[in-house]
Every structure is written in C-alpha cells, then in structure tokens.
Specification:
Layout: E1 3-7, E2 10-13, E3 23-28, E4 31-36, E5 42-46, H1 49-61, H2 63-73
Antiparallel strand pairs: 1-2, 2-3, 3-4, 4-5
Length: about 80
C-alpha cells in the first residue's frame, strides 16, 4: 500500500484497486482508521482525537487531490 503523505507521525496510505467508497487509511502508532474522502467520516478503526483532528483537517485541504489519486488507483 503506497504511502501518499506523512506528517506528525501520521501515515496516510491508499490501496491500489480498493473497495468503494473512495477512502484512505490513516495510521498513527498502533492505531488505524479508514476515512471516507467525500465526508471525511471514519468508516472503520479509530485514531486518538488529536490525530483524527489533524487527519480530517489534512483531508479537507487535499480532498480534490485524494479523489484524483483514488481515480488513478482504481482504473
């Protein structure tokens, strides 16, 4: 699974040809969450509140690019 970003110890990854809806994986230490790109809601897993806040803010800033990455990975 390619890492597409890393900040403050948080790793953002996206699987090639993954299941819908468009989402990314965020890992922080031993915690992991799957985040839907359109809504930025947690689809599964969990992160500490502070890390989740940073991931959601990051996702809002890069939503367009994340959707482009998703489309490229799913074709």
């Amino acid at each position: 699974m390619p890492e597409i970003s890393r900040f403050f110890g948080i790793s953002i990854k996206m699987f090639y040809d993954d299941h819908a809806p468009p989402h990314f994986h965020a890992e922080y230490g031993d915690d992991m969450a799957v985040i839907e790109i359109q809504t930025l809601l947690v689809m599964g897993g969990e992160l500490p509140p502070r890390a989740l806040g940073m991931v959601v803010e990051w996702g809002a800033h890069f939503r367009k690019e994340l959707l482009e990455d998703w489309n490229l990975a799913s074709t």
